[in-house]
Design a protein that fits this description.
Elements lengths: L1 E3 L2 E4 L4 E4 L2 E3 L3 H12 L7 H8 L5 H15 L9 E4 L3 E4 L3
Antiparallel strand pairs: 1-2, 2-3, 3-4, 5-6
């Protein structure tokens, strides 16, 4: 499992808890978070995230899903601490 702030993500089960409380994730959110957790600290491109999470749309759909995930894991989604944007490259998960 990976910890970030008040959250813990069980990679095997695809389950997120915040302060011990279960947080509901869609299958795409769970898949996306699993990809981030397995590559924690590494910058992942939108294309790779689309492929790994089976998002059947365009790269903007990845941005929408990341925004939704941030609302669930970040203390302040507008100033992300854990799920950060890497300009021109993609996103990175920076766990504690």
């Amino acid at each position: 499992s990976v910890r970030f702030g008040d959250c813990k993500f069980d990679i095997e089960r695809g389950e997120l808890t915040r302060n011990g409380e279960h947080v509901r994730l869609t299958s795409i959110e769970a898949s996306l978070l699993r990809t981030f957790a397995l590559n924690a600290g590494g910058t992942l491109s939108r294309e790779l995230l689309m492929r790994e999470s089976r998002i059947n749309s365009n790269t903007r759909a990845v941005d929408v899903q990341v925004t939704r995930l941030r609302r669930k894991i970040e203390p302040n989604p507008k100033l992300p601490r854990y799920l950060q944007t890497v300009r021109g490259a993609g996103y990175v998960l920076r766990p504690d």
